[in-house]
Each structure stands twice: as C-alpha cells, then as structure tokens.
Amino acid sequence: MATRNTPLTCAGHTRPVVHLAFSPKQEHDGTYLLVSSCKDGNPMLRDWRGDWVGTFVGHKGAVWQTKLSSDSARALTGSADFTAKFWDTFTGQALVSLPHEHIVRTVALGPGGTQGMTAGQEKKVRVWDLARAGQGTVGDPSFLKAPGLATAHEGTIKSVIWGEENLGVSAGDDAVVRWWDLRTLASPFHLKLPEAPTSMELSIPTQTLTITHGKTVSFVPLSGPESGPSHQVTLSHAPSSASLHPVFGDRFVAGSVGDPWVRVYGLEMGEEREVYKGHHGPVHCVEYSPDGEMYATGSEDGTIRLWQTTPGKSVLATGSAFVAAAPAQAVLELSGVERLPTPATVQTSNATLAAADRDETNIRVLTFNCCTDWLAPQP
Fold first, then answer.
1. Measuring CA to CA, how many Å separate 344 from each of 48, 49, 93, 135?
2. Are 311 and 328 in contact (CB under 8 A)?
3. Strand, helix or coil at 231?
4. How far apart are CA 74 and CA 81, in angstroms?
5. What parts of the sequence cross the membrane (predicted)?
6. Phi, psi of 135 (to 5 degrees)
7. Helices (H) and strands (E) in the chain, counts
8. For the chain, what is the largest distance between any 2 Cα atoms, rounded to a whole number of angstroms?
9. If DSSP codes are grouped into helix, strand and coil, which group holds residue 133?
10. Are 179 and 187 in contact (CB under 8 A)?
11. How confident is the model at residue 4 (pLDDT cuts 50, 70, 90)?
12. Which residues is 283 bridged to in the sheet?
C-alpha cells in the first residue's frame, strides 16, 4: 500500500508560483529559509516550518527567480519589469535596483553575497559587484560572452548558477549549458543538449547540476562534464523541474508541465517510487530542503506545498542536525537551552513575538521586538 503524504499548504500568492529556493542550513541553529517567486510580482520569504516571514514589495512585474545569500542576509530577484533588485532580508528594503533592457529570468548570488549574476531575454549574462549596495551604489556590470558571440547565449537564458567562488554556469534556450571562469569572463567549455532546458538547479552537498530538458533529467558535475561521469534518466512525462536529494543522492523529485502530480524517482534506474497529488494545476518548480527532510513544490494554482521525504516523521532543528520528536513535544535545543518554537503570527506592524526559554533553574518569558514595517499583510 502506498504511503499517504499530506503536504503542508502555504498560501498567499495570487498567481502561479514559478520558482522556489531554499537557503543553506544556518550554522548557529541548523534552520533554513525558503523564498518563492511568483507571477504576482511579490516574492515571499518563509521559515523552515513554512511560516510566512515577509514579502518583498517593489517589483512591477512578474518575479521569475529569487536567490538567497549563504547567510540568508541578502536576496536577489529578477523580474519582468526589466530590473533585478538586491534586498536586505532583515528590513525587507531593496538596497539597489539593477536596470536591464529586457525581462530578467534568472539570478544568482556569489558565496559571500557580495556579487551577483543576472540574465534573461537579452541573452546576456551580467556580473555585478554588490559590495557597496548598502550605500545605494553599484558599478557597471561585466558581461559574459561566448566564443564567437556578442552575447552569452543565442537564446533566452533560463538559469544561471554561481557555484564555487569563480565558477558560473548558464543554460539557455539555444540548448547549450556553458561553464564560465568568472575571473577571466571566459567560457572554457559547454554542453550541447538535444532540447532546450526547462530548469537547472544546483545540489550544493553533492556538487551536482540537475537539468531538465524534453523528457530527460540530466545530472552533471558542477565542475563540468569533463570532470566526471554524467547521468541521465528519461521519464514518461516532460518534467518542468527536478531536484536531487542533497543527503542520499539516490533519488530526485520532479514536477510536470502537463499535470498536477508530484513524483519521486530513483536516480540509478529512474523507477517511479512515489506519486502524490495535492496541487490543482501543473507543478512548475520543485526543490529539496538542504537537510533532505522535505521538498517544496510550486504550482500554477498559486500555492506552495511542503512534502515530507519520510511521511509521518516529525523533525526539529538541534544545532546543525535534525532529530525526530513528537509534534506535541516539539522543542528546539540550542546550546543546552530548550526553546519552545516561536509563534509565527505577526499581529501588528510593531509586533512582539513571545517564546519561553527553560533552563535548569527557572522559566522566563522573553519578548522580541521585531521591526516588521516592510512586511506586506500576512496571507
């Protein structure tokens, strides 16, 4: 009998959700954030439990992609309003707006969050120095150009990845994936696909690019196809997006351009292991959380759904690891102090969030003053 997997539904968007991205696990508590991009133009930030944190308000068109910095302090968005914006995730303010001449479809942030890449329908990849964005100043970008071309690709660029410090990867509608040396701005090699890619995501722990094209999912080493073996799985349907499990590396989840089902496949043989229905429209994007305990899906129906990798298991952050616990006894353990999960509801624009800290001698109720002026009305 198939295991029932009831997802947690995260509402709030008013149009199709087109991209999802998790932050890395944070070193101090092992938690992470999830950011969603949507055609409603309002990217949303959520915590590791799916609770709404805030909405980035400022774009005047669909937001196609959002990426978080490694410390989650910054976000970069790309929009149909011909701009990319660099955000402070603590205040929700746009530090700087980066002008373009056409729709921005994809963005990436460097490891330190002080450099970024943007690309889209101009067929150009821009590399930005964002170190002074906090002062509202950003210099002119550098441009990546493929050998023999005035641009990076011959078609719309759907995805850019900032891998290691000086390594970039881009994928375009010309069915080409290019690797870039960001020191020299040169492309040392490329991979030609039989079809244009529909998505490309990076699994940081496995250092693997997951690329969907046609009915195929390709798994390619981040350092390039010449550095190690690639692997391909052909599916019975055309995947819109796919994500490799970051811990086990033996399975992947895929969405579909033609139906509302979410499917999990084995990596080696491509066998269909799990099939779940919860959305009411095609599933545009999927992404595993950095600990592999769940995956998020975004759909034409305007919702995000969080699915457990192991249905029925309850997990809690403890340091940089996760442990099972009963839901009614959920306790977050940090440095020997047990902390009850903080309520997620923001009640006013100058909200106070209460949490109970317990040590061996007393129980204290702490109040945290939160600046929430940047937050849009809670979904």
1. 11, 9, 21, 31
2. no
3. strand
4. 20
5. none
6. -95, 5
7. 0, 34
8. 71
9. helix
10. yes
11. confident
12. 299
* Closest to 36 measured CA to CA, from 275, 263, 286, 224: 286
Q: The tokens of 319 are what? A: 């340091």
Rounded to an integer, the average pLDDT of 88-98 is 96
Closest CA to 143 of 79, 209, 187: 187
DSSP, collapsed to helix, strand or coil, labels residue 371 as coil
| Nearest in space to 55 (alpha carbons), one of 94, 9, 107 | 94
DSSP string, 34-88: EEEEETTS--EEEETTS-EEEE----SS-EEEEEE-TTSSEEEEEETTSEEEEEE
Both structure tokens of 366: 């702490």
Per-residue pLDDT, 371:
32
Do 133 and 116 meet the contact criterion of CB atoms below 8 Å apart? no
Kindly provide the residue ranges of all beta strands, DSSP E only, lying in 246-351, ordered along the sequence: 251-256, 261-266, 272-277, 283-288, 294-299, 304-308, 315-318, 321-324, 332-334, 337-339
List domains and CATH numbers for the chain: 8-309 (2.130.10.10), 317-369 (no CATH)
Q: So what's the pLDDT on residue 134?
A: 85
Residues in the chain: 379
